[in-house]
Amino acid sequence: MMQRRSPATPCGAVLAISFLARVATGLELSVNNHAADFTLSAKLGPAISLSCLVHNSSRAEELLWYRGDGRVGLNDGNKVNISNICISPVNESDNGVTFTCRLARDKSVQVSVLLDVQFPPRLSGEETLHVEAEKDVTLSCNSKSNPQAQSTWYKDNQILTLQQSHHELYQSSEVFQLSIRKVQKSDNGTYTCVVESSLGKGTRDFHLVVEDKKPVFPMEAVIAAVVVVTLTVFFAIVARRDKIFKVW
């Protein structure tokens, strides 16, 4: 007698059942009164509090917090139906980080918060560079900011006039570079990198000293001269060997 096998339930059907169950009960989460993912703007320093709350549940629900992909440790009294975390102090490394509150028994129930931490460029100091004439040199300003900053280069307190094939600029979200190809004596001076955003600006000075080009020592010519001198002495000795032996 053949046994009847129960038909397998497709994965899609399981997800659909889970979704319908949530819809039927109205179970959802909110973070700081937001029931959907949102972006939270912040400044450097002051602490940020995030509060996750379970809605429409008739049972005790455990909550989980994540920073990016990493789990946030919670105290036992800060896990059930309501859970709070505090980011203090807020710093540059928190910018662009996502904090997510999830339901422990159904991690598809979640709300995420993207931190938008705004801070001005941080740039200061000075540097002296000694470069031989005809060599290339690159001046680099490393500075992060949010919103992204723009850079301007000055030479001796005047906006630098860029020369094609002589100056080259490179800019990314964190790096601002000025490259000078085959420096000349006329490139001597103080170069200032000014990085500015709507929140402020930073500056850095580069004192460029172009030194005289060092003469290239012709090693091939020296080696050839040594060989010629050595052979000349050798043949001279061979040619006069009889006289040399008589003297001895």
TrEMBL record:
Q: Where is the signal peptide?
A: 1-26
Could you state a single Gene Ontology molecular function term?
Answer: cell adhesion molecule binding
A GO cellular component annotation in the UniProt record: plasma membrane
Q: Which Pfam families match?
A: ig (PF00047), Ig_3 (PF13927)
Q: Which residues form the Ig-like domain?
A: 45-112, 121-209
Q: How does it sit in the membrane?
A: Single-pass type I membrane protein
Matching entries from InterPro entries are given as: Cell_adhesion_signaling (IPR051275), Ig-like_dom (IPR007110), Ig-like_dom_sf (IPR036179), Ig-like_fold (IPR013783), Ig_sub (IPR003599), Ig_sub2 (IPR003598), Immunoglobulin_dom (IPR013151)
Tell me, in one coarse class, where this protein mainly resides: membrane
Q: Which UniProt keywords apply?
A: Disulfide bond, Glycoprotein, Immunoglobulin domain, Membrane, Signal, Transmembrane, Transmembrane helix
Location in the cell reads:
Membrane
Q: Name one GO biological process term.
A: cell-cell adhesion
Transmembrane regions listed in the UniProt entry: 221-239
Q: What is this protein's name?
A: TMIG1 protein
Instruction: Supply the source organism for this entry.
Output: Sinosuthora webbiana
Designated gene of the protein? Tmigd1
